[in-house]
Amino acid sequence: MSTQLLLIQSLNGLQFGVLLFLVAAGLTLVFGVMDFINLAHGVQYMLGAYLGASLAAATGSFWLALVLALPATLLAGLALEWLVFRHLYGRDHLAQVLATFGVILSLNQLVRMVWGSAPLQMPTPALLEGSIPLMPGLNYPLYRAAILVAGLATAGLLWLVVERTRLGALVRAGATNAPMVAALGVDIHRLFMLVFGCGAMLAGFAGVMAAPILSVDPGMGDTVLILAFVVIVIGGIGSVRGAFIAALLVGLIETLGRSLMPDVMRLVLAPSPARQTGAALASMLVYVAMAGILAWRPRGLFPVRAG
Amino acid sequence: MAIFAALALAPLVGFGAGHSLSLLARAMILGLGALGLNLLVGGAGLISLGHAASFGIGAYALVMLDAAGQTDAGVVFPVAVLAAALFALLTGAVAIRTAGVNFIMITLAFGQMAFFTAASLSAYGGDDGYTLYGRTRLFGTRLLENRWFFHYLLLALLVLAWVVGRRLLASRFGRVLRAARENPLRVQAIGFSPTPYRLLAYTLAGALGGLAGALLANATEFVAPSFIAWQRSGDLLFMVILGGLGELHGAILGALAFVLLEEYLAELTPHWRLIFGPLLVLVALYLKGGLLGLVQRRG
């Protein structure tokens, strides 16, 4: 493993982490404010990718597809909220898990019906094709770099809104003690719809951006969802800052683990079993890290809610 | 119990054909696993979204023994059960420390961990799964391949698990569990620590799942990582709720209803999940107390 490859893989890890953050941000805020566990959040990511891919194919423009897919995922999120989720707020987590699981089953199947089971391809926009030289003899794909930048910019914007505006103060207050905020005269349901819609759109945004580099298939939302759960558990539920740090951490562990573990194992094992155990260990690494962090801090790195 | 009687009579009154028997076998095996989960969800109030992992551990223990040439029931089943119990004990020791949503998510994460591990075991088929050339031997015989014997064996195991589970819930152990579900602080105040009780419940549920997994591998004669997919955990949770949380046999009823419904809808349309999903939402929203609650309200 050369330093150059390590650098590339670290960048890939950060880029994946940024995508994870976009999905996890909505999830952690929705849970923080409404005590609502939404398994169907990954569906938004999947919808974003599918809408992006088919709109790009229809319009011939990545940018138009991006601009159209964002409000579409926002609407889809609000429609789901209105149809199903708002009936679940007062209910226990068991009912929430079950109902949102049902939503996943339905929407995954719907996507299969509309777009088929075969993965879709989405071309990278012409403007972002090619690669940028990082150092002599080492290039990095421009599109991946653009995801990293766009993700960091979105994270920065989100941080500004949450930490520096009145709206953000309400959201943070809601995550800390929702009944108190409601008692102070804030329409918590409207606040929640806003948070929910934004969260859905952020996940959709991540989906559109991921579409050109990952395969767009019906199960893609589930994979991301589970990693996003790991992220918000590590970060501390309700904390955007925690989600950001945890997302980068998970992205790095996941990506570096996959490329490094087989090599590490080769130090002690023969090449073929080394590749196997390396791959097995790499896929466990994130969960082991999570277990370790939770054993040390059961409420995550940046717990929000008091008591 | 009416369910057990129906299951005992089913093969005699026209459901003895191969297909319906394997359907019933599937329902009873899933029922066994769901029973363990019900012990956890209904008894201890711990919502696990990684219960399929114990199925997988049990099934893969059987696969590994099969690959090593060991197919004797006296070895296979105890190893499968112990392996799943050990996995539950280890992961439970971490998971029990958390509560509420963190518990749901951490069990989900451990389930995924098991899933990806199974998928990367290329010696045992990896993603493609592993085909068993014959069922586990019972005292050197191929008795498990007899459908009728298998049916009644499953029924016997199910009844046994139900009886033991009921006694457990009625014992001091069960009372502490239920008390800790309602109010952990008070339980601590009167001198019980809920943690060992919960861990034991988690381990027991895992052991039952391991048994069910090894049985399922026998029923299908095929094992794949999809045994452990998190959707399976969701399905199991759905069975428990569908049947009714309050009573242990609710899980069995739920599993039966689930398997029959799945079969019926899948025959109706290839897009059966499109009907199944909304149905699940409706059950979660409106069917409090599950099917058992429905029956009891009528009666």
Q: Write down the oligomeric state.
A: heterodimer
**Kindly state the mean pLDDT of chain A as a whole number?**
84
Radius of gyration of chain A: 20 Å
Structural class of the helix and strand makeup of chain A?
mainly alpha
> CATH topology of chain B, anyone?
ABC transporter involved in vitamin B12 uptake, BtuC
CATH architecture level-2 label of chain B: Orthogonal Bundle
**Tally of structural domains of chain B:** 1
| Overall geometric form of chain B | globular
Distance separating the two termini of chain A: 47 Å
Give average pLDDT of chain B, whole number. 84
Q: What structural class is derived from the secondary structure elements of chain B?
A: mainly alpha
Overall shape of chain A: it is globular
Helix content of chain A: over 70%
What is the count of helical runs of chain B? 13
Task: Please indicate the count of domains of chain A.
Answer: 1
